[in-house]
Hints:
Layout: H1 8-58, E1 68-74, E2 77-87, E3 93-101, E4 111-118, H2 123-127
Antiparallel strand pairs: 1-2, 2-3, 3-4
Amino acid sequence: MKHTGMTLLEVMVALLIFAITGTAVMKAASEHLNSISVIEEVTFATWVANNRLTQLQLESRWPPQNNVKGTQELADRTWHWRQIVKETTDKDMRAVEIEVRLQADADSAITNVGTFVTRRANTSALSRSPGE
């Protein structure tokens, strides 16, 4: 008499393979969801920093203030930004960096965005004719 089918050992090995595969798939899915959350935070933080840099470009204050802090509401969260201004070799130019955090006392920023700002030219001097 010949028996067909799988032995208990074969079934146990097959279950072990499925369990390991399932665990690997769940871990990969979890890491993917976590990375999407991080990308979302960095994107929103970058928008906050870019908004602050745009506001800075529109201000007429020279030189820009260093270590200015503020908050902005975006995506149902309060984002904390800090403005860092550094001198450059050109007296009419400053390097400005905006750091953005979700908590004001967080050790590291979610993102840093930087640009250079220049002193605005005196428009009244430009509108004068050469003989004046």
